[in-house]
Design a protein that fits this description.
It contains 11 helices and 8 strands. By secondary structure, the protein is of the alpha/beta class. It folds into 2 domains: 2-171, NAD(P)-binding Rossmann-like Domain (Rossmann fold), CATH 3.40.50.720; 175-278, 6-phosphogluconate dehydrogenase C-terminal like domain (6-phosphogluconate dehydrogenase C-terminal fold, Orthogonal Bundle). The two termini are 39 Å apart.
C-alpha cells in the first residue's frame, strides 16, 4: 500500500485523493495545502489523512502529485526533484506541458517525473469542489513519456487505471496544441461571452431572467478560477493566439453573413458546424 502525497487539495488533487484511497491504490494520503481554510476543509472532508509540510510530504510519500496551478508547478517541480530519493515518483496534473517539461529536462532525477494531464474537471475550485468518480471514463494524457523511467510510467499507469482513465501518449508540444483547441479556447470564449452579457446587463436588468439552459451551458466555464487560468493562457500563448485568430475569423464570417442578410452563407456556416456531431455526441 503506497503513501501518496498530494500538493494542492483542490478539485483535481482532492478528487484524486478520494478515489485513490477509496479504491485501494493509496494506503495513506498526505496533503499539502498552503491556504489554512482550505487545509481545514480538506481534513474535515477526509481528503487527506494528514496535512503536512511540503518537505515532509516529499520525504514520506512514494508518489507525489503536484496539483497546483501550472505557474507554481513549474517553480516547485525542480525543487521537489532535488529532494526525492530513488524509487519515488513525481507527477503533475497541469493543463500545459511544454514549460513544465522544459523546466526539468536536464535534471538528474528527470526519469522519476511522469508528466500527466487527466482530462477532467469542472468550473469549480478548492477542496469543496472535490468529488468521487470525477475521472471515470475520461482520458489521461502522458506527455514525453520516453523521458521517464519505464517502471515509473508503469506505476502511474496503474494509478490512472485505478481512477478508470484511459491513457493517451503524445509529446508535450502536441499536448499544448491540442488542449488549446479543445479546452483553452472554450474558456476564453466563455469569459468573453460573460463579459459581453454583463456589460449589456448594466442597461437591461432582465437579461439574466431570460437566460436559458443554452446560455448557462455556454457560459459555465466563465466561473473558472483566474489563478488557474492566467498561467495556462500565458504559458500556452502561442497556441492560444493561433486558435483565437481562427475563432475571430469564423466570428467575422458570421457577422458578415448576418449583416448582409445572406441566408445561404449562414446555412452553410451552421451546417458545416453541425459536422461536430461526428466527434461529439
Amino acid at each position: 500500500m503506497r503513501t501518496v502525497g498530494i500538493i494542492g487539495l483542490g478539485l483535481i488533487g482532492g478528487s484524486m485523493a478520494i478515489d485513490l484511497k477509496k479504491r485501494g491504490f493509496a494506503g495513506k494520503v498526505l496533503g499539502v495545502e498552503a491556504d489554512k481554510v482550505a487545509a481545514q476543509a480538506a481534513m474535515t472532508m477526509g481528503l487527506a489523512d494528514e496535512i503536512v509540510s511540503l518537505e515532509d510530504c516529499v520525504d514520506r510519500s512514494d508518489i507525489i502529485v503536484l496539483a497546483v496551478p501550472v505557474g507554481a508547478a513549474v517553480k516547485m517541480l525542480p525543487e521537489i526533484l532535488d529532494r526525492i530519493k530513488e524509487k519515488k515518483i513525481v507527477i503533475d496534473v497541469c493543463s500545459t506541458k511544454e514549460h513544465i517539461c522544459a523546466s526539468v529536462k536536464y535534471h538528474p532525477a528527470r526519469k522519476q517525473f511522469v508528466c500527466t494531464h487527466p482530462m477532467a474537471g469542472t468550473e469549480y475550485s478548492g477542496p469543496w469542489a472535490a468529488q468521487p468518480g470525477l475521472f471515470d471514463g475520461r482520458a489521461c494524457i502522458f506527455a514525453d513519456q520516453e523521458e521517464s523511467a519505464p517502471w515509473a510510467v508503469q506505476d502511474i499507469l496503474e494509478l490512472y487505471s485505478c481512477l478508470n482513465m484511459r491513457p493517451i501518449f503524445m509529446s508535450s508540444s502536441s499536448h499544448d496544441v491540442h488542449t488549446a483547441y479543445v479546452s483553452h479556447i472554450s474558456h476564453v470564449t466563455s469569459f468573453a461571452l460573460a463579459l459581453t452579457v454583463l456589460d449589456k446587463e448594466k442597461d437591461e436588468k432582465h437579461i439574466f431572467d431570460l437566460a436559458s439552459g443554452g446560455f448557462s451551458s455556454t457560459v459555465r466555464l466563465a466561473k473558472s478560477n483566474a489563478d488557474m487560468w492566467i498561467p495556462i493562457l500565458t504559458q500556452n500563448h502561442n497556441n492560444v493566439l493561433q486558435v483565437m485568430d481562427t475563432y475571430i475569423e469564423k466570428m467575422q464570417q458570421f457577422r458578415e453573413a448576418v449583416a448582409s442578410y445572406d441566408e445561404d452563407a449562414l446555412r452553410k456556416l451552421i451546417e458545416d458546424a453541425n459536422k461536430i456531431k461526428r466527434i461529439i455526441r
